[in-house]
């Protein structure tokens, strides 16, 4: 095998590092995309018996957005393995304890049928904020696009832009905001 062909083969099977920003994203929809990159499903060389997946760094997991009233209704099950060790935790309580756990469970459950999912999950790196160690940032070569655009809050706009926007209602001078 020539040197050029050998380098092509190494590049084909190399693990790529991706970064994904989970700000205001649904973790269950995001898990689909993250799974594709962790398992290498997007690669033309993918085969179920071949471990060709990549590393994925997910930042801002503390700012995920569940649809509707899922924060109050969704329940996560955990069992310690001992008698009476079963517990059910609401999504908002679990997120308060560990802001990365909901995203981790969503990706893990999305990989049903993958016999290697425990080892595949080792390539998933979750961070509750944007603080990623420098040695991991050096490896990143791709950014995964967000599913939904993140809206800008009104307090982040300049005052000039807000004043230029047309008013919908002119409040009377004696109006009191409670």
Task: Describe the model.
It is a single chain. The chain is α/β, with parallel strands linked by helices and 178 residues long. The protein contains eight helices and six strands, in the order αβαβαββαααβαβα. Strands 5-2-1-6 form a four-stranded parallel beta sheet, covered by helices on one side. The protein has a two-stranded antiparallel ribbon with strand order 3-4. Helix 2 packs across helix 5 (101-110). The N and C termini lie far apart (78 Å). The model has no long low-confidence stretch (mean pLDDT 92).
Percentage of residues in helical conformation: 25-40%
Uncertain parts? none
Strands side by side in the biggest sheet:
5-2-1-6
Indicate the proportion of strand residues: 15-25%
Strands, count = 6
Whole-Å distance between the termini?
A: 78 Å
Using the CA coordinates, give the radius of gyration: 22 Å
What string gives the helices and strands in order?
HEHEHEEHHHEHEH
What is the typical, i.e. mean, pLDDT? 92
Which geometry do the CA atoms define? flat
What is the makeup of the main sheet?
4 strands, parallel
Class inferred from helices and paired strands: alpha/beta
**Continuous helix count:** 8
SSE order and pairing:
Elements: H1 3-13, E1 17-21, H2 27-39, E2 55-59, H3 70-73, E3 75-79, E4 86-90, H4 91-97, H5 101-110, H6 117-120, E5 124-126, H7 134-137, E6 140-143, H8 159-164
Parallel strand pairs: 1-2, 1-6, 2-5
Antiparallel strand pairs: 3-4
Key descriptive features of the protein:
alpha/beta; four-stranded parallel sheet; two-stranded antiparallel ribbon; 8 helices; 6 strands; flat
